[in-house]
Automatic annotation (TrEMBL):
Gene Ontology BP annotations: chemotaxis
Key words, A-Z: Chemotaxis
Name of the featured protein: Methyl-accepting chemotaxis protein IV
Gene3D superfamilies membership: Methyl-accepting chemotaxis protein
GO MF entries: transmembrane signaling receptor activity
Annotated InterPro entries: MCP_chemotaxis
GO terms under cellular component: plasma membrane
PANTHER family: METHYL-ACCEPTING CHEMOTAXIS PROTEIN 3 (PTHR43531:SF11), PROTEIN ICFG (PTHR43531)
Length: 82
């Protein structure tokens, strides 16, 4: 009878250890999920910023082309006129 009790207690300890390890794994899994969510948020923000930068670059390019066209329309006299 004593051996049965010892085996039962041993099994109970092992079950408790497994439960504790499972809790720890669940905790770390939640931390990983949180980290992945944070990375996804940063990537999304970077993507939005890149899109804004691209739009600003296109606008600057258009303005530069307009400025070039305006400057090209100036007619300068001979160098002796200065």
């Amino acid at each position: 009878m004593g051996a049965v009790v010892q085996h039962t207690e041993s099994i109970n300890r092992k079950i408790c250890n497994i439960a504790q390890a499972s809790d720890e794994q669940a905790h770390f899994a939640r931390q990983i999920t949180t980290g992945i969510d944070q990375i996804a948020s940063v990537v999304q923000n970077n993507s939005a910023t890149a899109e804004q930068s691209a739009a600003a670059s296109e606008e600057l390019s258009a303005q530069a082309q307009t400025l070039k066209t305006l400057v090209d329309s100036f007619v300068l006299g001979e160098e002796d006129d200065f």
